[in-house]
Amino acid sequence: MQLKHHVDSFFSPKLANRYNPHHPLCFVLLHGFLAHSGTFHSFNQVWKKSLTGDHNTNHNHPTNKEIHNVRILTVDARNHGLSPHTASHNQSLMTEDLTHFLSQQDLYPNPNHHTVVAVGHSMGSGTWTKFLLDEKEKVKPPIAAFLSMDMPPITGAELSPTLRGELGVFLDIMKHVKLERVTDYRSGQEAFELAIEQCLPSDQRQDKKALARVKGFLSTNLRFTTDSEKKRVARWKCHVPVLEKALKESQLFLDAAQYSKETCQGGIAVPVLSLLGGDSPIGGQPQYRGRWPHFVKNANDGNLVREVIIPNATHTIYFDQPEATVTAINTFLEDVGVF
Asked: TM spans, by residue (predicted)?
């Protein structure tokens, strides 16, 4: 596979960024497994308003100053969203993709007067973690800070069985949806109902909130294209068989053989904010808390590593509690001197 061929066509939405070329602040967001760049849309709007002064209150506004040089890049990972589907999916390939994307944007290896902040949720956090660990030989990495959303440094074997099971259920439902019967979002809802009935036990189907979330996830992953006969064809944005294999083979997170606790000690040389969902199968469990200090250089400096538990948030903390997430981020970035 020619990596460059695929990465050159990776999808990153064009947001109405408010910045000028002189020392802009650039956030690069990587989404989680089975998500895509669009899942950050609502969160990005809340965040940008807090930075640029487009709001009525300033409780989460850094230093009460407007920051107009803001650029937010959200990128569809391979086999997700509108980026190419490939035959392989693992953390090493995603890190290579990220490196190439940053180079395309003139953000790597030298950020060209940009201040770059890395942001990752779940799988995206794992990708950024590997990228930063691989940069450990550099005295000054090209990243100013790292914001990790509900995914501390873990190996594939350490992934929460609950989260692994939930992701597996999503994939199973997607496989059971008869896409050939879907011509629009209304018929999609009907197809979703049938697949959910096949895949979920009756007691789980009674949870209306959870059911709405599943249907919302399926809807945002639908993509309509036109075939050779100009008929509308429904497809998944996610490359389901490849992603199912990656999940089963634990290819989404750190390789235990290459990234042992000993070799990774102090390997990340940038400030890290770990945001954990209080009701998440990751952040809500004690074994996933307090992991970052081991991986961050000079972690005894209280400003360099911070862990914040977001109450009433599941794994998708940016969706469940956007305001609380933004407040924690802005406070941290101000404290470490990014703002």
From this structure: none
The domain defined by 5-158+254-336 folds into: Rossmann fold (3.40.50)
Structure tokens that stand for 243 in this block: 């992603």
Amino acid letter, residue 47: W
Q: Are 205 and 197 in contact (CB under 8 A)?
A: yes
Residues 312, 46: Cα–Cα separation, whole Å: 18
Closest residue by Cα to residue 183 from 119, 230, 253: 230
- The 3-state DSSP composition of the chain as helix, strand, coil percent (nearest 5) reads 40, 15, 45
Low-confidence ranges of the chain (pLDDT < 70): 1-23, 54-68, 137-141, 302
Listed by start position, the domains of the chain span 5-158+254-336, 170-249
Instruction: List the one residue out of 132, 141, 137, 138 whose CA is nearest residue 95.
Output: 132
Contact (CB, 8 A) for 1 and 48: no
DSSP string across 84-116: PP-S---HHHHHHHHHHHHHHTT-SSS-TT-EE
pTM for this model (two decimals): 0.89
Q: How many CA atoms lie within 13 A of 115 on its CB side?
A: 17
- DSSP 8-state assignment for residue 234: E
Query: Cβ(314)–Cβ(278) under 8 Å?
Result: no
Distance between CA atoms of residues 87 and 78, nearest Å:
10
Q: How far apart are CA 251 and CA 312, in angstroms?
A: 29
Which residue, among 172, 67, 123, has the nearest Cα to 315 in the 3D structure?
A: 123
